[in-house]
Amino acid sequence: MLVGCESKGGCFQVDHPPVTDEDAPLVIGVTFGEMVSTVVGERSGPLWWEPSEPYICGLPPPGQTRISVTVHEPTMAQEIDLERVIDSRFPWRNDRVVCSDWVEADLEITLRTDDGVLDTTIMAGALFDEFGSVTMTGELDDLDALGVEPVDPNATLYVRLSHDADRPAEGTLVLRSGSSDGNGGGISVELATWTLE
Length: 197
Known about the structure:
- The chain is mainly β.
- The protein has one domain (2-195).
- The protein is 5% helix and 48% strand.
- The strands form 2 sheets. It has an 8-stranded antiparallel barrel with strand order 3-5-7-8-9-11-12-13. A two-stranded antiparallel ribbon has the order 4-10.
- The longest helix is centred in the N-terminal third of the chain and has 6 residues, at 32-37.
- Mean pLDDT is 87; it is low at 1-8.
């Protein structure tokens, strides 16, 4: 089945069923098992708390602790397979169109800090690209359980993790406050950053 995408992109999406077999080859050039092995497991490293009093109550003052991050193995993944649309009228355009593939999965991630501030499990959406990079983003839903209270009652806290083949994994705890409609009314503040060893 072919699913059309925006014509200006010059790509169309080839529809694939969800992948569950760890030996199944993926559009990014590795198997499902090889893909998840790059992120699954427990890693730890130093975490730095940033100044946060203007934005949220209940987090520590600036300082350092350690964090353990455990990524649990997903049961399935979805391939995003993009193919180039061949333009027969203007063939010179074909070489200018790049259609990059990626794979998406939902991951359960546990976060624990030695100072006890973070001890929670979240669901995060992960994107694995064909260059070996992974980005994961998940929201911290139960702020009461964490004992924190944003100054803006409509603010959200989320975790952003990134894994690259050529550098250590990194993470950020971010507060997003205000408008998210793209008109410049909102702000995003990094509350903590860490590097996993």
